[in-house]
Amino acid sequence: MELNSSYGNHTTAESPDPSTKHPPHIATDSKPKYVLHSEKDTYDFTAQRCIEKPTKYTVDLVICLDLFGACCVYQIIIAKTIQQVVHTDAELEDLSYLRLYVLSLLVPILLLCMIRTLKYLAPFTLIADVFIVTCVVATIVYSQQTAPKISEVPAWKDVIGFFEFCGIVTFSMEGVGVSLPIENNMKNPKQFPMVLFAGMTVVVSFLILVGFFGYWGFGEKSISPVTLNFPSEM
């Protein structure tokens, strides 16, 4: 009788309850499971998932300041480049022209920022890539026209120069803010590490080429952007 009772209790414990949808002996968790590569895979959501909820707003604030500042710098770089093409050397020091070009860029940049789907930005990215490659090649060519002997170029700078270098490198890598959006828009997100490795290899290679040849050819008198160091009669 005890055996029958024990067996009955055992079978009752293991028999699935028709009112439940879960198999027996499988613990259910009322908390939602986080799924990778979902629409919530953003930097703020990742920070909240890993640490605490207040970090979500901190990450949003830091990314906003970082990308907003970087976009402001890029807008000034574009305006300086346009000013160099349009105006003479004597007018390059006039900031009033620079402010006008920055203001004129406001509308097209705002229109581009309204495009939230990355695939629609792909054509603009391809055009930008062509200009980037052209700029890298031009930097190498024009720097060699005025480059001194490599032995005459100082290999190291002072402590202040080191921190300036750190700031330039940090600014050059600010594209990290779009890493997760790219992964979320990929058809196969599992290939993202390979895509990231290939992309960063190209980016770092271009930065090394421009930095090395730009400093070798134009030296301490080099100004930003590097295109302003090119001869004006080109």
From TrEMBL:
Compartment(s) of residence: Membrane
Topology within the bilayer: Multi-pass membrane protein
Transmembrane segments: 57-77, 97-115, 120-142, 162-182, 194-218
A GO MF term: L-amino acid transmembrane transporter activity
One Pfam entry name: Aa_trans
Keyword annotations: Membrane, Transmembrane, Transmembrane helix
Lineage: Eukaryota, Metazoa, Ecdysozoa, Arthropoda, Hexapoda
Protein name: Amino acid transporter transmembrane domain-containing protein
Region of interest: Disordered: 1-29
Domain of life: Eukaryota
One CC-aspect GO term: vacuolar membrane
Domain Amino acid transporter transmembrane: 35-232
InterPro entries, per database record: AA_transpt_TM
Bias type Polar residues, positions: 1-18
Keyword Transmembrane (UniProt): yes
